[in-house]
Amino acid sequence: MKEMIHPRIREYACTSCSTVTQKTHSSEKGLTQEQVRQHRKKYGGNEQTISDKKENTIPHCIRRAFINPFTVILFLLAVILLFTDILMPEQYGQGLSSVLIISLMLVLSGVIRLLQELRAKRVTDRLTQMVQTTVSVCRDGVWQEVCSDELVVGDLVRMEAGDRVPADIRLTDATDFFVSQSVITGESRILEKNTLPLAEAPTKISECSNTVFQGTTVTGGKGVGIVLAVGADTVYGNFSAMPSNRKEEFDRGSASIAWVLIKFMVILVPVVFLASGLTKGNWLEAFLFALSVAVGLTPEMLPMVVNVCLAKGSFSMGQKQTVVKNINAMQSLGSMDLLCVDKTGTLTEDTVTLEYFMDVLGNESETVLDYAFLNSYYHSGVKNYLDTAILSCREMPGREAHFETLSKSSVLLDERPFDYTRKFVGILLKGETENLHIIKGNVEQVASRCRYVQFKGEQIPIQGNSVKDAHAIVDEMTEDGMKVLAVACQRTNASVLSGEESDFILLGYLGFFDAPKKSAAGTMKRLKKLKVDVRVLTGDDQKTAVSICSRLGIETDHLLTGEELELISENELPLIIEQTTVFAELSPRQKAQIVELLQQNGHSVGFLGDGMNDLPAEMAANVGISVDTAAEAVKESADVILLRKDLNVLEQGILEGRRAFANMAKYIKITASSNFGNICAVVVASVLLPFFPMTSLQLLLLNLLYDTLCLILPWDNVDTEQLEAPIHWTGKHLGRFMCRFGPISSVFDVLTFAFLYFVLCPSLCGGSFAGLDSSGQAAFISLFQTGWFLESMWTQVLILHLLRTSKIPFLQSKPSHAVFLVTILGVVLFTIFTVTPVGGYLGLTTLPVGYYGFLLLVVICYLLAISGAKYFYFKKHQELLQGGVP
Questions:
Q1: HEC string of 539-560?
Q2: 323 strand-pairing partners
Q3: How many angstroms separate the CA atoms of 758 and 770, rounded?
Q4: Which residue from 297, 392, 765, 797 has the least number of CB within 10 angstroms?
Q5: In terms of Cα–Cα distance, which of 656, 659, 663 is closest to 803?
Q6: Residue 490: alpha-carbon gap to chain centroid
């Protein structure tokens, strides 16, 4: 990671604090306001350093809304139509009408998506503003709170436990200053930082013992430093700017669908070009007609329908207390087949209470409580929910004065904050003759450093297996789902902590309980029915995790601890990870490692987390999910934010994601196959007929009218069976679907051609096409094109009802009332449209009533044929409209 460290940091890490102050033009009074303006101009600002923030800016929202594979295809086709309309407008269009129609589609679809993107942005911006984002800075000799975005190189910053480091900072003063760098290194170890200059320029982040980096968390102590790098120059800025595969998943799916359409174009355009050129002899005309075929093959309103489906799904989730920051994340929710969750607050009530404080044999011990209180009260590191539960003992009836006195009885000399290697917190308190060293944390880690146990005021040496006997009571509590901490102490003459703890006295244990959520068990069952497996990834003790998971119906036979994970070979790891349902005692790095291995096994993984230790896994997942009370960095990296920390909310989000993509799949597959059938018929007609069966503008209008009706699809009902499994956004089966159902419509198109050319048109025009004069031929062509226009429109609209479900339409699967009314009204209105002046302007005309009897017969036969094909297709492939299968 050498290239990520700014040269200024490598240089100043080897210089004294006074030299750093001098070279950055700072001082003990910080920068002046004029220097701040100069430095911001020279070095840049600290704004928008996280990739998700960058992707959430208005320019990026506009780019996502208007630029994607679908809109690119339509834009190119609009350019082609512009070319044909200018070159041969009398044969291929009506001025610029076709170009304007496509342009309008592009603009409307982009606006729909942009409005939804901006709505989500406003919500997430409000959530971000609710989080403390200020930093203590000295300017003009006055310490003041300013927004972290306003920092510049040279600013003098003050930090303490719980703060998130706002920039890359060279420390000039540090007191017991401990930092977690897991967000940028993935390592869970807590590092102590100092102000001493290095002997040589650092090449790794871990070597920068006197520098703290943006995004890391202060876990203990206090420190002051000078800002050396801001914004994109920081290590975190570089790290966060790296492309995330999960953000590209929707685009990859869109590209795969676009490529299917392009492949069909590549095949059909040359065929039409050669067929028309050889039969009609006009190669320029053949080329322009072949290009119009490409236009007819593309679902013109594809971007709009896709964006409306996504926006509707995102809006529905918003009503269910879920904010979708990027509506592309709807795809990830719909395709997610594995959800990784932390235990605390997700499966439990997140309200931890101190139930027991006892000696090594399980007797209530006020000494254990007092020493635990001192440890939690005096350590300046980040306090967690367990510390909060311990400190609440000050409210115990009759004990308020005791704990008030206890909190004022000692002076803190030194401390060692919690880290994921030692797994306990240590403090050193000043005593009258000897100082008191108290440690509190993981039972095994604390007990392993003890030489004695205390029972009834006596210190008993630990011999052989007596440690296990001494804390056997712990097993009973952990099996009941309780979180257990051990407390130990030591009298010492040392005034600082060395980090080499030994010869402690084991005092006893603390038992905490966080009850399982009442709703969690039912949600687990429903997620399982949705074919979403849940994996628990927690840092808690394995027995506690097993107890909670067992009560919720989560299989716990396959459990893996972080320590066991480290011992598994790389070859065995993917298989063992796949078979494991509960992971306990994990570090942040291990959580991310598990997520990545599950992805390598072919899963689409979601991760629900809220703490800084969840950030690496959050960023590695296909869809990052957080809550509005999460750490700021976690919310910034998340795709979806739950306004209520409840899996029930997430379950509804999964269903909305699948519903949105099921309706998108309806449009894409049905429309693409229908257009393909029409184009195949056009190819046949262009070879056999002396005129084109439909003008390019009529083809475009036909597709536009159909696509307009399809805008109601986002509100269509979706069969329960289509929501039972993850839906993947891919063009994998699109070509197969088009080839199976498209040619069926071509057959009935050709039958309609024959009826129109040999029966209806000659009878109305007074003879065959070849025997008519120019005016008669014009009427012949108008009748023919109107007849096929109606047949295509009727079959396209009605087939929507047949292929929207694998069941029997209207009986086993009913469309929404809106879809039913709009499609039926659409058929009626578009039929009437052919006899209006606008229809006449486009070359359409009135047909005799008898033709509608023939049309009704053709439509019935066509629907029966499609029903048979649908039955055999579904029987063979077990899918009809899903974008893909897991």
A1: CCCHHHHHHHHHHCCCCCCCEE
A2: 641
A3: 12
A4: 392
A5: 663
A6: 49
Helix, strand, coil shares, percent, the chain, to 5: 55, 15, 30
Stated as kind and residue range, the H or E segment containing 796 is: helix 774-803
Identity (one letter) of the amino acid at 65?
A
**Rounded CA separation 80/260 (Å):** 20
The rounded distance, in Å, linking the Cα atoms of 336 and 510 is 39
- CA dist 748 and 744 (Å) reads 7
Q: 765-788, pLDDT tens digit by residue?
A: 988 988 898 899 999 999 999 998
Which residues lie closer than 8 Å to 789 by C-beta, 6 or more apart?
Answer: 694, 698, 702, 834, 844
Q: Could you tell me which of 670, 711, 712, 654 has the C-alpha nearest to residue 805?
A: 670
Distances (CA, A) of 463 to 453, 502, 503: 10, 15, 13
Q: Name the strand (E) or helix (H) holding 453.
A: strand 450-455
Helices (H), 24-93: 33-43, 51-55, 58-66, 69-87, 89-92
d(C-alpha 128, C-alpha 629), whole Å: 10
Return the bridge partners of 225, or none: 157, 171
Residue 807, CB-side half-sphere exposure with 13 Å CA sphere: 13
CB 20 within 8 A of CB 156: no
Rg of the chain taking only CA atoms, in angstroms: 35
* Tokens of residue 646, six digits: 């409840």
pLDDT score at 319: 75
Instruction: Report the alpha-carbon distance of residue 695 to residue 705 in Å, rounded.
Output: 15
Residue 491 and residue 656: Cα distance in Å, rounded?
Answer: 60
- Taken in order 112, 114, 120, 122, the sign of the CA dihedral is negative
Q: Which of 303, 426, 295 is nearest to 371 (CA)?
A: 426
Instruction: Give yes or no: 342 in active site.
Output: yes
Contact 297, 310 (CB under 8 A): no
Please choose, from the candidates 746, 742, 765, 771, the residue with its C-alpha nearest in 3D space to the C-alpha of residue 686: 746
- Confidence at residue 729, expressed as pLDDT on a 0 to 100 scale: 67
Measure the CA–CA gap between 465 and 808, rounded to whole angstroms.
Answer: 70
Q: What is the DSSP string of 669-714?
A: HHHHHHHHHHHHHHHHHHHHSSS-SS-HHHHHHHHHHHHHHHTTGG
Which residue intervals of 88-177 are DSSP H helices? 89-92, 97-129
- Count CB neighbours of 145 within 10 A: 9
Could you tell me if 661 and 334 are in contact, meaning their C-beta atoms sit under 8 angstroms apart?
yes
Residue given tokens 């208005």 in the structure block:
58
Given 52, 176, 342, 414, which residue is catalytic?
Answer: 342
Kindly report the pTM of this predicted structure: 0.67
Instruction: State which H helix or E strand residue 775 sits in.
Output: helix 774-803
What region does 645 belong to: left with phi over 0, alpha with psi -120 to 50, or beta? beta
Q: Is 493 exposed, middle or buried (0-12, 13-18, 19+ CB in 10 A)?
A: exposed
Beta-carbon count within 10 A of 252 CB: 13
**CA distances (Å), origin 853, targets 163, 800, 827, 848, 858:** 77, 21, 15, 10, 9
Higher pLDDT, 643 or 572: 572
Q: In whole angstroms, how far apart are CA 682 and each of 298, 688, 785?
A: 14, 10, 11
The lowest-confidence range among 95-104, 394-403, 862-871 is 95-104
Mapping DSSP to helix (H, G, I), strand (E, B) and coil, where does residue 568 land? Answer: coil
3-class SS at 282?
coil
Helices (H), 392-471: 400-407, 443-447, 466-470
Amino acid at 850: G
Task: Tell me the three-class secondary structure of 162-208, residue by residue.
Answer: CCECCCEEEEEEEEEEEEECHHHHCCCCEEEECCCCCCCCCCCHHHC
